[in-house]
Structures are given as C-alpha cells and as structure tokens.
Amino acid sequence: MALEWSKERVVVTGGAGFLGGFVLEELRRRGAREIFVPRSREYDLVDMGAVRRLYADARPTIVLHLAARVGGIGANRANPGKFFYDNLMMGVQLIEVGRQVGLKKLVALGTICAYPKFCPVPFKEEDLWSGYPEETNAPYGLAKKMLLVQSEAYRQQYGFNSIVLFPVNLYGPNDNFDLETSHVIPALIRKCVAARERGDKTITAWGDGSPTREFLHARDAAAGIVAAAERYEKSEPVNLGAGREVKIGDLVALVARLCGFQGEIAWDTSKPNGQPRRMLDTERALREFGWKARIELEEGLAETVAWFEAHRGEFK
To answer: How much is the pTM?
Structure first.
C-alpha cells in the first residue's frame, strides 16, 4: 500500500509526548498536512465513548498509536494494575473502532518489555512467546503484546490492516526527566547534572550495573515508525532497535562524563536490576521496509545532555 502523506488524514495518539514530537516532525518532513493529535483531557482513550468520538471528529485514514501509560522500574512496580488496564484498553479499542469505521491502516507500538525475562540475545521476533516477561514490567509488556494478538486475529477475520512494532528503550531531547517516572537515561542525566551542581562526591544508581540494555534515539524510532507505516503490510511483529547493547555500569560512567560529574558511582544492590540483558535483532525491519538506526549512542547522549542543560530551569 503506497502512501502519499499529503493525501492522508493522520491521527497520532501520544503525539504531544516525547516520541510523538519526533514522529510529527518526520510526518511533516514527508509531506503530511492533516495531522490530528488527541489530548488526554479531551479524549480519554481508555474510554470507548471517547475513542468513538475521536474517530468521528478526526475522520482519520491512518492512525499511529504511540500513547502509553509507562514509566521506569519504580513506576511499574507501583502501578501494575493501572499500567495493564490502561494500555490494554487504549489499544484494543482503537483497533476495534478502526475496524468498524473502515480505517485504512493502524500502526501500534508494542514494547521490548513484552519479551521473556530470559530470552536469547539478540531478541528475535519469534522469541516473543517463548517465556514470561520480567516481573516488574510484565503487566505493561503483556498488555502491549495483546495488540499483536488482536492485529493478527483482525487481519485474519476482517482483513483489517494493522501492524505492531516493538521498539527498544528510547531516549533523546525532550524526554521525561521526572525522577519518579523517568527511564534510566533521563534519570541518570538529571541525577548527574544535579550532583555536579551541588558538588556531590557520589551518586547512587539502582542495581549492580551488570545488566545490559539497548537504547534507540527517538528520532531514529520516528523514522522507523513512519517507514513501516508506508511500506509494511503484515501483522508479524517487527523490532525497532539500534542493534547494540551497553552494560548499565558503562552507561552510567558515560553519562557522568558527558554531564561533567567527576565523583564516585555507588550501586544500591537492594534495588532490582530488571531483565539481565536486552538487545534486539533488527534484521526484519531492514529487510521489510529498509530501516536501520543511524545515531550512535554517545552522539545521541551528548545531544540529550545539551538539551537538558539548556532547559534546566524548567525542571523543579
């Protein structure tokens, strides 16, 4: 299905968020003119009535579903029920009403948290069902994985065109830097900058530094999402990742250096490490729609640190 973005009406749920800003930028770069970004105060996507109203108001031909109730390990542990219910209902209802109104295509984002806790590295899409996710984020991960089941079932029964992409941990400028709900990179940047400004001798990081993670710049992710919307027409899952893993201990040292923090790093081993290793196999994305990550980790981190430093006064 060839897409001419200038002729499509595009709804981007979560378009006002971190990743959404980069997706809007990419859509406009490719010629999209009619883009509707629903705000949660006007359209609570957990409510079926609001989802129906969104479709009636925006009359989209394409929906990019980026919205999620999400956070780091702490937020996942504090809100397992809410994260499961809200994420499940948002996606399920957007797909169901999209089917009912004859939507041309829906692109949904899954999460790397859907993969089994002990999964061969690099994670291949066919491994998604080979075990239970890491416990601290399983409710969120499983809710997102149900969209894959729905996508495959609806394509089989109704011929509904939807795809589900599974991105790795994202980072970049304009990320969430709230220490209560942020992911590892923005939390580390904020912690290191604050420690430098106070003249602290030590910062404390969760776990023991041994797990590995993979990080994808949100600008790269946005390019992958839009490319998949243009060119991918199957309900088999597709990973979006950088294809490189980094040990958390090495990541903390790199962020500290880029932030100018020169003190010691202490590890709080009473806090959970999370999944032992994470890195995605990204060959399917390259093969199916020609996408590959471009931004190197240190380059992207330096850009993100610079953005945070420039907007430091906005964060209390």
So the answer is: 0.93
